[in-house]
Structures are given as structure tokens and as C-alpha cells.
Design a protein that fits this description.
There is one protein chain. With 197 residues, the chain is mainly α. It is built from seven helices and no strands. Helix 5 runs parallel beside helix 7 (154-187) and helix 6 (131-144) runs antiparallel to helix 7. The chain is globular, with a radius of gyration of 18 Å.
Length: 197
């Protein structure tokens, strides 16, 4: 089990509580979706501007209480680590299985909306190239627009799990194509630039 999976329920509950105390209208899932989109859009681990950006769009530019800021920083660190883990698909912070399915589906659609917003904020007006990236972004967009009407039966539970796995794969594809490959190319030595003495 990854660090993200171990801590996700605790992070979700503590951040939801802190957001409610701050009268913030955005949910934990949407906040983490924005952050995930920014990471997949190229946010560098050393770039601390994400806090200002995420508070501007997620809380009308208002500061969060110190306790909420601490949890948000923890979510950032753990999410960024989870993206870098090769065997972990995508860190998506949702209510756990104890919540009704309708709440979990709504949180997933809000996460997807946040992801698209965060990706756009980080990536800007630069063109997105690559069929896989565009297809993945379209899949996430489709999920973000789902009607949140669902029965709480086994078939609906299974459909939700399938949808969740699908979005995790789509986001991982974007991360691998957009961030990971670019980092690998930047780290690779340029052919013909060797100096021998």
C-alpha cells in the first residue's frame, strides 16, 4: 500500500473539516483535483506558487486557516510523491467506501472538474499535442460532466470502480506523456556533447 493510500482517508476527513470550518465552498476532492491537474500540467516540486493559485481559484483568494493550509501542504507532498511512483496509477482523494455512492460519484466529478482547471491553469494556452493526451483529457472532461444520479446497488458500485480506474489511467497517461517523458529528456545527456580529455 502506498503512502497516499494509507493516509487518504485521514487527509480527506481532516481537510473536509477544515474547509467547512473556513466556510469554503470547494470540496477536498476538487482542491486535490486542481492540484493534480497542476502537477500533470508541469508544476515543479520546487514551485511554491501553487498555493497562491489554488487559493485564488478555490477560495476566492482568501487564506485558509493554518490547520487547513498544513493539510493542503501535506496533500501536495503526498500527491506529488504518488504521481512519481511508477506502480501507482493516480492519487485521487475521494470519500471512502463508508460514504454513499452518490457522494463518491459527485466527489469524482468535482475532482475531474478541478483536474481540468488545474491542468489549464498550469499549462496555459500552450497547445496540447499527442493523441493519447487529448483523448485522456476528453475522457476526464466527459467524467466531469456526468449526471450524479445513481442507485446504491452492486452494479452501480462496480460501474463506479470501473469509472474510477479509467480516470486514474487517463491521468497517469497524461502525467507520463507530459511530465515524466519531458523530465527524462531533460535529464538525458545530449548526444555529441561529450568532452574527452
Amino acid at each position: 500500500m502506498s503512502e497516499f493510500e494509507e493516509k487518504s482517508a485521514e487527509l480527506y476527513e481532516s481537510f473536509e473539516e477544515a474547509l467547512a470550518d473556513a466556510d469554503c465552498e470547494i470540496s477536498t476532492s476538487e482542491f486535490q483535483g486542481i492540484l493534480s491537474g497542476m502537477i500533470c500540467g508541469g508544476l515543479k516540486a520546487t514551485d511554491s506558487s501553487w498555493k497562491r493559485t489554488i487559493l485564488e481559484v478555490g477560495n476566492d483568494g482568501n487564506q485558509l486557516p493554518e490547520s487547513a493550509q498544513k493539510v493542503l501542504e501535506d496533500i501536495n507532498v503526498i500527491s506529488a510523491r504518488a504521481f512519481r511512483e511508477e506502480d501507482f496509477l493516480t492519487p485521487i482523494l475521494l470519500p471512502d467506501e463508508d460514504y454513499p455512492l452518490i457522494d463518491r460519484l459527485e466527489a469524482l466529478t468535482l475532482w475531474a472538474q478541478g483536474y481540468l482547471l488545474g491542468f489549464g491553469l498550469q499549462h496555459g494556452n500552450q497547445p496540447v499535442t499527442g493523441a493519447e493526451i487529448n483523448e485522456s483529457l476528453q475522457d476526464i472532461s466527459d467524467i466531469s460532466q456526468l449526471d450524479v444520479v445513481v442507485d446504491n446497488d452492486e452494479e452501480s458500485q462496480a460501474a463506479f470502480i470501473t469509472l474510477l480506474e479509467h480516470i486514474k489511467v487517463a491521468v497517469k497517461v497524461i502525467y507520463l506523456e507530459f511530465v515524466f517523458k519531458i523530465e527524462q529528456r531533460a535529464a538525458a545527456p545530449v548526444a555529441g556533447n561529450s568532452t574527452f580529455h
